[in-house]
Amino acid sequence: MKFLATAFVRLLIPIGILVAGAYGYTRLSIEPAEEMSEPAEEQVLRSRIVSLASSDFVVKIQTNGVVGPHNRVTLSAEVTGTIRATEVAFEVGSFFQAGDLLLDIDDRDYQTALQVAREQNKLAKATLTLTQSAHERNQELARRNSASGAELDSTLSALVAAQSQVEITASAIDQAQRDLERTKIYAPFDGRVATKSVGVGQLVSPGTMLGDVFAIDYAEVRLPIASRELRHLKLPEREGDPPVDVELRDAIDASSGSRWRAKIVRTEGTLDADSLELFAIARIDDPFSFHSDHAILRIGQPVVAIVRGEILRDVMVIPRGAVRRLDQVYLIDRDKLTLRSLTIDPLWSDADNVIVRDGSIQDGEMLATSMLVYAPEGSLVQIIPDDSAAVSLAGEPPELEATP
């Protein structure tokens, strides 16, 4: 009996497992009744807009440069001597006018040399007078057959030598005079002292650098112009070509509000080997404001230059923020308020605007300016009210940073 009970228990366990599995399978295999789902509402996009209108747009190219003098020279000594005095006008930063005395070298030796040259010239002239008289006497004696040809030739030779000596001593006077004048260094033009390399008591010789000076009548700025920007500019290439207006701004302190008017007067003849840019030379008159009321523009000042280029006629001005990658914009149908995408081909672009001329964009067409993450073609659009955004872009835009 005990054996039968054990066998019955062992048989009952797997039968129970099979029955439980069959019951579970039956319950779980019944498909639930399908619930009726409501159709999803059509998604409506929301965006701010601007109303587009054709207008004329002035291309303004932004570039950078550093103000430099148009004429900077190194003053050098032309004679040997000790510096006796330097003038106040020869201090670093001092202004001077053309002809002002800057520096004085001890000239006593050169005054002596000039005096010696003058005395030698006097002696040569006296010798010339004597030899000329002797030659004239021999000529008279030769006509009377009282002097030989050899005697006549001798006095002629002496006369020629005396004449040459007079010329030599006269040249020595000129040389001594020039050397004496070179002991005083005068300003070659109206300018300012950049560096000073010598002082009182210093011995200098020909070629010794005394200092650097630069002219102040006008300054110049080398402005790099990218090759792709050149087609929007008409730069002066030949003498007589009209200059191009440029506005310069302070690149160090933009909040200063300083402005300087300049003109591009010429261009360099070759493109830069590294950047393939063309350098245009802009000229600023009276940079230190001696005869004008603008702010002082110092040499070495970094500036931002705004160059006025061509006028693009009948174009659309599109805010850069409304342009998606691959030059794509979204337009909104004014009647249906549906969205359509358009790929544009920019004529010009800068930091704030993209300029296009596209016949498929009509005046008054609405442009979506909000960032649309998901924008299927033909989607309904709800316009976000914004009076300041829904204004026409006609007219000239503000001055912009050029990034074509």
Architecture overview:
With 404 residues, the protein is of the alpha+beta class. The strands form 5 sheets. A 6-stranded antiparallel β-barrel has the order 3-12-15-14-13-16. The protein starts with a helix and ends in a 21-residue tail after the last strand. The chain has helices at residues 2-28, 108-143, 149-181, and strands at residues 45-47, 49-51, 55-69, 72-76, 81-86, 95-96, 101-105, 184-186, 191-196, 203-204, 209-215, 218-225, 244-250, 259-271, 278-285, 302-319, 328-332, 339-343, 348-349, 353-356, 366-368, 381-383. A hairpin with a 6-residue loop joins β14 and β15 (278-285). The protein is elongated and about 180 Å long. The longest helix has 36 residues, at 108-143. It has 4 domains: 46-57 and 312-383, conserved putative lor/sdh protein from methanococcus maripaludis s2 fold (Beta Barrel); 62-70 and 217-311, Elongation Factor Tu (Ef-tu), domain 3; 78-105 and 183-207, Beta Barrel (OB fold (Dihydrolipoamide Acetyltransferase, E2P)); 107-182, Helix Hairpins. α2 (108-143) runs antiparallel to α3.
SSE diagram, text form:
Blueprint: H1 2-28, E1 45-47, E2 49-51, E3 55-69, E4 72-76, E5 81-86, E6 95-96, E7 101-105, H2 108-143, H3 149-181, E8 184-186, E9 191-196, E10 203-204, E11 209-215, E12 218-225, E13 244-250, E14 259-271, E15 278-285, E16 302-319, E17 328-332, E18 339-343, E19 348-349, E20 353-356, E21 366-368, E22 381-383
Parallel strand pairs: 1-22
Antiparallel strand pairs: 2-21, 3-12, 3-16, 4-11, 5-7, 5-10, 6-9, 7-8, 9-11, 12-15, 13-14, 13-16, 14-15, 16-20, 17-18, 17-21, 19-20
